[in-house]
Design brief:
The structure is a single chain. This protein has 183 residues and is of the alpha/beta class. The chain has a single domain, classed as Ribonuclease Z/Hydroxyacylglutathione hydrolase-like (Metallo-beta-lactamase, Chain A, 4-Layer Sandwich), CATH 3.60.15.10. The chain is 13% helix and 31% strand. It contains 3 helices and 12 strands; from the N terminus they run βββββαββββββαβα. The protein has a 6-stranded mixed β-sheet. The protein has a 4-stranded mixed β-sheet with strand order 7-8-9-12, with no helix packed on it. Strands 10-11 form a two-stranded antiparallel ribbon. A hairpin with a 4-residue loop joins strand 2 and strand 3. The radius of gyration is 15 Å and the shape is globular. The two termini are 30 Å apart.
Amino acid sequence: MSLSPGPVTHHGDGFFTWHAYDPSCKAELWSTGFTDLQGTTLFDPIDWPKESPWPASPVHIVRTNMNHDRDCDILLKRGASMAAGPEGFLPIPLPGAGEDESAFFHNSTGSLVLGDALIHLTPHGLMPLPDKYCTDPALLQKSLATLLSLPIRRIFFAHGDPLLSSPLPLLAKILTSDPSPQK
């Protein structure tokens, strides 16, 4: 899979995103990056945007689930390496979503990076992964409820625009109301 993503968008505190539409799965694929003095971590990366300079080394790739190989092979050839978990992030297993699904929380910035467990796509808004893709939808709801105890200030998604301010009330609403999508 080699897509043609647009340029990187910076969100402050070392976080950035890039994305592209993948016609093979009919979905917008988003990738999140984080750069600090130790280097750069790329979460669920699609191909690197041609208009953007390669990030600061060392570059590590982290997958939020076993389904997110995406363009890892291309980026490994550019010098990135695979990492089990990013330094400075709390891994949060999310059983019930896809295989080995985890979120990663960066406490000092209040930033949560998610794979497929939650999606935020237009026109549906924020919603849990649809049941047909879950290993156990009821367990996923319980797993997602654990996120409400974190001081989350923004959320980055593998599918959809990031929520850059006050995401907890919206997250609480979708986890405590009827399962239909919320905007």
